[in-house]
Write a structure and sequence with these properties.
This protein is an alpha+beta fold and 162 residues long. Helix content is 12%, strand content 15%. The chain has 2 helices and 7 strands. It has helices at 3-17, 113-116; strands at 24-26, 49-50, 56-58, 96-98, 123-128, 138-142, 151-153. A hairpin with a 5-residue loop joins strand 2 (49-50) and strand 3. The chain starts with a helix and ends in a 9-residue tail after the last strand.
Length: 162
Amino acid sequence: MSGVPGADLLCFRQAQEAGLQGTFRAFLSSSNQNLASLVKRSDSTAHPILNLMGQYLFPNWRSLFSDSTPPMTPRLPLYSFNGRDVWTHPNWPYKAVWHGSSPIGVSGRGLQCGDWRQSDHVTGLATRLPGGRLLRDSTEERCQTPLIVLCVENSYPSPYTQ
């Protein structure tokens, strides 16, 4: 992945290729980045989390870090930037999401695949799908396993800009 900056760049490029505006970041914690801080505190309760088709997933960013986070199921559809259904498409044979985070959104005990730069002989935190609660039901996975990296929009257009 070339670290979090490399994953962020992939999210940015794929969003641009899909014609999306805004800033998209990888849903990953590292030794110097907590997942909870990807979205500004002032925005963390202001907007629901939607998928690329505009379907409701979660009430807001802060809700991802609560005890009441619902399990990830196909009822909460996830799509790639090119519109593929992550639940059913063969591009993602391993149904699990990398995150490297504790349930409260802070870096998870050094389990981030060497800050997302190496895959041999290290492990990272992920949540298996379906049925896992995104950060609550984490498992250690071998980093050479090609799991899903979610991209999240962390900037919101101002109602005063055109």
